[in-house]
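Input (structure):
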């Protein structure tokens, strides 16, 4: 399955990662179906934000409430790796739920896209669309 991204999504993710460095940024990927239309940053509330992330639960709850009220769906999550590795880490693999969510990982000036499956992370092809 190809993931569609609106034109500003990757630029926003790169800006978020640069702003948070040397800590990990994190947030939500919002849209409909297989189309990510925007990102919503969330506070990284992990005790060690330089090498881990934990989404602020209030942001996650608010996004799910908004989706139930007709707003954009929570397609997945994003975070950065200040260590420069744009792939799922051992911690990411341990924390993954296998529920099919999309994960964007930002590192070294690029964004990689993954699906969290029961068998582990699978890379996702992407296509940029206007929006």
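Output (sequence):
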């Amino acid at each position: 399955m190809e993931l569609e991204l609106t034109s500003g999504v990757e630029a926003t993710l790169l800006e978020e990662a640069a702003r948070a460095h040397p800590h990990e940024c994190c947030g939500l990927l919002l849209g409909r179906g297989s189309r990510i239309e925007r990102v919503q940053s969330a506070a990284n509330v992990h005790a060690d934000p330089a090498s881990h992330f934990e989404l602020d639960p209030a942001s996650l709850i608010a996004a799910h409430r908004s989706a139930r009220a007709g707003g954009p769906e929570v397609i997945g999550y994003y975070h950065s790796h200040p260590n420069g590795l744009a792939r799922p880490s051992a911690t990411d693999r341990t924390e993954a739920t296998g529920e099919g969510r999309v994960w964007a990982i930002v590192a070294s000036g690029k964004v990689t896209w993954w699906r969290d499956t029961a068998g582990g992370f699978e890379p996702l092809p992407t296509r940029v669309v206007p929006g």
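Notes: The first helix runs from residue 9 to 20. Residues 3-126 form a domain with the Cytidine Deaminase; domain 2 fold (CATH 3.40.140.10).
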